[in-house]
Amino acid sequence: MHKLLLKGGRVVDPQAGEIFAADILIVEGRIAAIGPGLEAGECAVMDVAGKLVAPGLIDMHVHFREPGFEAKETIASGSRAAARGGFTAVACMPNTDPVADNRAVITYIKNRAEEAGLVKVYPIAALTRGSRGEELTEMADLKEAGAVALSDDGHPVASAAVMRRAMQYARMVGLPVISHCEEPTLSAGGVMHEGYMSTVLGLPGIPAAAEEIMVARDIILSEYTGCPLHIAHVSTSGSVRLIREAKARGVPVTAEVTPHHFTLTDRAVADYNTSTKVNPPLRTEEDVAALKEALADGTIDVIATDHAPHTLEEKDVEYQLAPFGLVGLETALGLVWTELVIPGVLSPVEAIRKLTVNPARILGLKEGVLKVGADADITIIDPELTEVVDPATFASKGRNTPFSGRRLQGLPVATIVKGRVVYNRDLAVIA
Fold first, then answer.
1. Partners of 380 in the beta sheet?
2. Which of 2, 224, 320, 359 could make an SS bond with 58 (beta carbons 3.0 to 4.6 A apart)?
3. Contact criterion met (CB below 8 Å) for 103 and 141
4. 403 is in an annotated binding site
């Protein structure tokens, strides 16, 4: 019988909203007991004294690039990056080649994740065929195949009529719609936030209004159809205001923010480092302040990475020619701790809630909690550990991070999926 005892840690319970001293006994991949002073006879013991023992982190927005773009990332390399970043589960976006708009691609992704055997990978299916925004996908079939949500992420659905119909059908089959909010005629040709810095740098801009117009439209359609709407990678103060007002009215809307959007501003673009080229773009100090306030008051439910790896060759070009995206799985927890927890924007429990139980609830997953009988998906965090970000050490194929050289605190030291240790930094395990 396979047993593992996590001894001497402080358990973070995001559901109950508390942190308490307890041991956790794992038997055959499930949590068998939680409590002080547990003994289990003959079993492996992991010393987690001084560490936080949290439910396994869930990233509901990653791009694993397979099938079609394996030079950027594979499901196996992405899974390794997730495990190293403390994530036990991820939801991967459908902008692969072919697009994940049919049962065959969804099944392929699940099978490749099973072969990798590291973290749980939940496919998000395309909302429209080929993510072209014209014809709806077979939503019921995709759900049956294992899709947990619907999105054309990377491509806004330009037609309000198509989005309305998509929401009506998505509600019928019981899947949330994840919206990439971007008005394409306003953002066309832009490479960074439109404002003072874009003028100084001579780069074409993407106005905040490009995001906010689509956020407003999709909130109106969500209210009209009753379909749960999740707004991806919120980046502007105007979007925050719209979401806050919609929630107050009872619209079924949720939202996420990325670590790079609550950490960096458009000033990071000043040296033309293409790792700062993301969509939506890095915004202003006022926007960053609004995002932090929205995290604190619950307007923003989830922290997700939008992990978007690219090859060195693709990013090592002029700023305007580089693709959008940066890698985020392996720096996310350190950025959350350094930028939000230590300064007091979020408590440790609130931060963990936005990385576990909230994304699980939105996607309809049973993960994100620590309770007896549940899968032993656990992330062990050392809140005191610091490290300087070095892309050369990443498990991801992607090296496109703007955080290289930054010192982060509060890092994952072990990741456990179904009772199996898939990442261990340096914790002693006594067999």
1. 53, 414
2. 359
3. yes
4. no
Query: Distance (Å, rounded) from C-alpha 232 to C-alpha 304?
Result: 9
Query: Alpha carbon of 168 to those of 136, 142, 173, 219, 299: distances in Å?
Result: 11, 16, 9, 14, 24
Find out whether 300 and 256 touch, Cβ atoms under 8 Å. Answer: yes
Paired tokens of 211: 């995001």
pLDDT bin (cut points 50, 70, 90) of residue 2 is: confident
Q: Is 324 annotated for ligand binding?
A: yes
**pLDDT, tens digit (0-9, with 9 covering 90-100), for 288-323:** 999 999 999 999 999 999 999 999 999 999 999 999
Q: Hey, what amino acid is at 116?
A: A
Residue 253 has, within 13 A of its CA and on its CB side, a CA count of 31
| Whether residue 228 has a cis bond before it, omega within 30° of 0 | no
197 close to 271: Cβ distance less than 8 angstroms: no
Within 10 angstroms of residue 226's Cβ, the number of other Cβ atoms is 11
Separation CA 326–CA 336 (nearest Å): 16
Q: How far is CA 334 from CA 85, 237, 316, 395, 400, in A?
A: 9, 24, 26, 16, 17
pTM: 0.98
279 is in an annotated binding site: yes
Q: Is 306 annotated as a binding residue?
A: yes
Residue 390 counted as an annotated binding residue: no
Catalytic residue list contains 306: yes
Q: What residues are paired with 230 via a beta bridge?
A: 178, 254
What is d(CA 78, CA 140) in angstroms, rounded to the nearest whole number?
28
- CB-based contact 408:418 (threshold 8 Å): no
**Two structure tokens written together for 150:** 């619907």
Options 13, 152, 306, 382, the catalytic residue: 306
